[in-house]
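Components:
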Amino acid sequence: MSSSSDAKTTPKITAQVVAKVAHLARLDLTEAELALMTTQLTGMLDHFGDIDKLDLSAVIPMAQPFPIKNVYREDVVVPGLDRQEVLDNAPVPQDGRFRVPPSNGSES
Amino acid sequence: MSNASSAPSHATILPNGWEMVIGLEVHVELDTKTKLFSASPNHFGDEPNTNIDPVTLGLPGALPVINRRAVELAIRLGLALNCTVQASTFHRKNYFYQDLAKAYQITQYDQPINIDGYMMLPGDVRIGIERAHLEEDTGKSTHFGGTSGRIHGSDYSLVDFNRAGVPLVEIVSRPDIRNADQARQYVSELRSILLAVGASDAKMEEGSMRCDVNVSVRKADEPFGTRCEIKNVNSIRAVGKAIDYEARRQVDVLESGGTIRQETRHWDDAEGRTHTLRVKEDADDYRYFLEPDLVLLDPGAEWVESIRASLPMLPAARRARLSQLTGADKESEAVYVIVERGQDDYVQLVADAGGEPARALVYVQQAFSEAGANPVVPATDLAALTLLERDAKVTATQAKTILAEIVANGGGDAVAIAAAKGFEALDTSAVEAMVDAAIAAQPDAWAKYCAGEEKAMGALVGAIMKSSQGKADGKVVTALLQAKRAK
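Structure:
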């Protein structure tokens, strides 16, 4: 994540941190997987730690690795997908909508 | 909602030196033909799941491409809110609510397109705008089973993705708002600006403009308290009510020794109260990261300046112009209402046709509430009527009757209508005789009035107006009575 790029010391990845991230991603990890992921994530962060040790003062921070910007689409309607075809592939269609289990919230 | 800005102030005063600190997050749907990242229609009220495509549904391999018009409208709004427009990026906000099929919302995070703006409220109150960023709207979930259709305790939900991916701008104010009146003024003014620049139809009842309200309380000059975010505030009236309720709730909790939890609360308009929706997740829990499928959005100075040049005159400037033309206060209800209706240009036309601007303002406010921005009545007809009243050729009451006839017929010659109706303002000597007669007929009322009882004047005025058959000018009658008492 970009927010860690200024850190001069690599944050320590613990099994608890990995367990929290796994929970947020709704992943059910075994103890063995937790240990493996902890080791792997530590290795990745160590790599960024190595980069942080370099003198990067002359390097302009970039948001994207791509040399292009401003890819636009004009505001013109193009027919999308047929509802019946889409709902035929849904686990539980109902009244033209997707029936889903109750969830923990909504953004709006 | 038309004139919340000029409604009389009834700001809730919290007890014991507590002060409200309020910030607003307003989501507005942009008035585009298609979605933010795909070409399905952006259209309210269609059959569920008829405006969907692979991007909307988050199907594997589907790639977002940004809608140029949505960017333009976001910039129009940002400029109207005095923001700096900058190069910006998109992030994924990861979550598992069922209202987006991708399990993330594409939004702007640390580099939003519009930053550091402000809006002025009546009384020269300046409310900072932290940012106005682009993001995609979510689908619509309807909850079934359990109690009263709420998320909690429901058995299942049905999801319609028509709204998912519709372009939104989220306007985040700084916590500069200090009472419910200011909050309502802010939302009302924002709505006027949105309509003026054509960014959104801003219909709160259809959800194309939605308010989340952040409320905390503190003792004056102390640091900010813990805030609660209130959702489901769906009208300008509800904004005020929800804030007043929530601030009092927090004060009650704190004064009884409790603490405020940072949480999201739901406004129940029928019950007039808020209740806990969910305890707020920390920002980090959404695990924002750069959207790898989108490139830098850098509109550039040339495009931004051409958009700025194309902006119409904004509501505040139009109110100032109308105020200058008519002499009415720029924060008066008449000025707000006329500008909101878009009839200020029409008042100018009446003035240009030789009419008296102040009377034109009053006529238009009274008689053109249904007329829209371009009343069919020729401005010259209204101008003639203002002069007739100004020169005391007709009384205010008679002018009102003539105005009603002109409006009903879509125009008309005020002088001819006055003549046809036998309207003429009586000259002062005739009115004076009537005044003397009324005093002689009602000595008790006159004595009370002379003793300082102002209400007693009403009986005298009423009798005079009646005997003149409405031809006496009420203002002249009042002035004569006052002059006689002063002798």
